[in-house]
Write a structure and sequence with these properties.
Blueprint: H1 8-13, H2 20-38, H3 40-50, E1 66-69, E2 80-83, E3 87-93, H4 103-112, E4 118-125, E5 140-143, H5 144-161, H6 163-178, H7 190-210, E6 215-219, E7 223-228, E8 233-238, E9 244-249, H8 255-261, E10 265-268, E11 276-283, H9 296-317
Parallel strand pairs: 3-4, 4-5
Antiparallel strand pairs: 1-2, 2-3, 6-7, 7-8, 8-9, 9-11, 10-11
Helix pairs in contact: 2-3, 2-6, 3-5, 5-6, 7-9, 8-9
Length: 334
C-alpha cells in the first residue's frame, strides 16, 4: 500500500517561524481562491458560511468573489478580506493569541468608512475570545473546528470537482488535525471501546509478567501502553493507529543489526539515546492474526508470543553498554 503524500502545509509551516497566524491566513486564502476557480460550488458555499451569509452567491457567480490577505486599510491591517463589489467582509484570524485592545473597534470604524453597503466583521479563532463590557464584538465568531467540519462536509463535492480541489481539502484538513484544530464526534461505542482497551492493557500486563519483564503503565495524550524492563521498551496502542499493537525500543541500538533483522522499521527520534529507534507494529485484525475473533485464552497466548518475539529481537540489536533510560518525549509516553 503506497504511503500517503507528504503534507504540503505542514512542510511549509516549519519555515513560518513566529508567523503562525499569518501562515494560517495565507493557507486558508489559497484554499478558498482555488475552490472559487476549480470547484466554484464548494467555494461559494464556504464563503457563505465563513461570512455569516453576507456573501451568498450561486456557483456561477463565484468569480465575483475576491480574496486578499493582510489588507492595508488606514491604520489597520485585517488578516483576511473576502469581498464583492457590493459586500466587504474582514476576518481576523487567531490561533493561540488574543486580540489587541481596541483592535475590533478600529476595524469597525474602518469598515464604516469603506463606502461599501454591506459589511461584516468576523473572528476566526481556536478558543472563544473574552471581551470586556465596553469592548466591540465581531458580527460573527467562527471556531477553527467549525471550519474544519465545513471542509469535511465539502470533501465529496471537492473530490468530484477534480483532483486538485480534493487534494487541497484533504491536505488542509490533515494539517489542521495535526495542529489539534479539528474535532471528531464521540460515538455511542465509546464505553465498549474503552472496556476493550482496558482488557487489552490487562492482558499486556500479564504477558509482560510471563516474559519476566516488569511493566509500568505509560498513559499519554496520544497513546496507551506499558514501559517494560526498566523503561527499555514500550508496548501498546497509538491512538492515531488504534488498529495496531506496537512495540518500540527506548535505548541505544545498532543500526546494521536492526536492518539485518528484516522486520520492523527504524525511525529517528531525538529523545532516544543514539536518536534511532526500532519499531514493530502488527494489525490486530489482519489475516494472519485475527486477534478479535480468538478466544480469551488464544488472545493471551498470541500476546505472549508477540511480546516474547519482540523482546528477543530488540535485545539482539541493542549495544552492550546502555545509557540511562531516556526521558519521555514531550507529547507521548511511548
Amino acid at each position: 500500500m503506497p504511503s500517503p503524500p507528504a503534507n504540503v502545509f505542514a512542510r511549509l509551516h516549519k519555515w513560518a517561524w513566529r508567523q503562525d497566524e499569518n501562515f494560517l491566513t495565507e493557507a486558508l486564502a489559497v484554499v478558498l481562491e482555488n475552490f472559487l476557480v476549480l470547484a466554484p460550488a464548494v467555494g461559494a458555499r464556504l464563503v457563505t458560511r465563513l461570512t455569516g451569509g453576507v456573501i451568498d452567491l450561486p456557483a456561477g457567480s463565484a468569480g465575483r468573489v475576491a480574496v486578499a490577505t493582510q489588507v492595508e486599510a488606514g491604520a489597520g491591517r485585517p488578516d483576511l478580506e473576502i469581498s464583492t463589489p457590493e459586500q466587504l467582509v474582514w476576518i481576523e484570524v487567531t490561533a493561540e493569541s488574543t486580540l489587541r485592545v481596541g483592535q475590533l473597534e478600529g476595524y469597525r470604524v474602518l469598515l464604516g468608512e469603506s463606502g461599501v453597503g454591506q459589511t461584516r466583521l468576523v473572528l476566526l479563532t481556536r478558543h472563544p475570545e473574552e471581551y470586556r463590557t465596553e469592548e466591540a464584538r465581531p458580527d460573527a465568531e467562527v471556531r477553527w473546528f467549525e471550519l474544519a467540519d465545513w471542509l469535511g462536509d465539502e470533501l465529496p463535492a471537492a473530490e468530484a470537482a477534480g483532483e486538485v480541489p480534493g487534494f487541497l481539502v484533504r491536505q488542509f484538513l490533515d494539517f489542521l488535525e495535526g495542529r489539534g484544530m479539528t474535532l471528531a464526534q464521540v460515538g455511542k461505542y465509546m464505553p465498549e471501546g474503552l472496556r476493550a482497551l482496558t482488557n487489552l492493557m490487562n492482558m499486556l500486563v500479564e504477558a509482560a509478567a510471563a516474559c519476566r519483564v516488569p511493566p509500568k503503565r505509560a498513559p499519554a495524550w496520544d497513546s496507551l501502553g506499558l514501559k517494560l524492563d526498566g523503561d527499555r521498551y514500550w508496548v501498546g496502542v497509538n491512538f492515531e493507529e488504534p488498529e495496531k499493537l506496537g512495540f518500540g525500543t527506548r535505548g541505544r541500538i545498532n543500526r546494521d543489526s536492526a536492518v539485518a533483522l528484516g522486520i520492523g522499521e527504524l525511525t529517528e527520534e531525538a529523545w532516544v539515546p543514539g536518536q534511532l529507534r526500532w519499531w514493530r507494529g502488527v494489525e490486530l485484525d489482519s489475516e494472519p492474526v485475527h486477534f478479535y475473533s480468538r478466544s480469551k485464552i488464544s488472545q493471551m497466548r498470541w500476546l505472549e508470543g508477540f511480546l516474547r518475539e519482540c523482546l528477543d529481537q530488540a535485545r539482539s540489536i541493542e549495544v552492550p553498554d546502555q545509557p540511562p533510560p531516556a526521558d519521555d518525549p514531550a507529547a507521548s509516553g511511548s
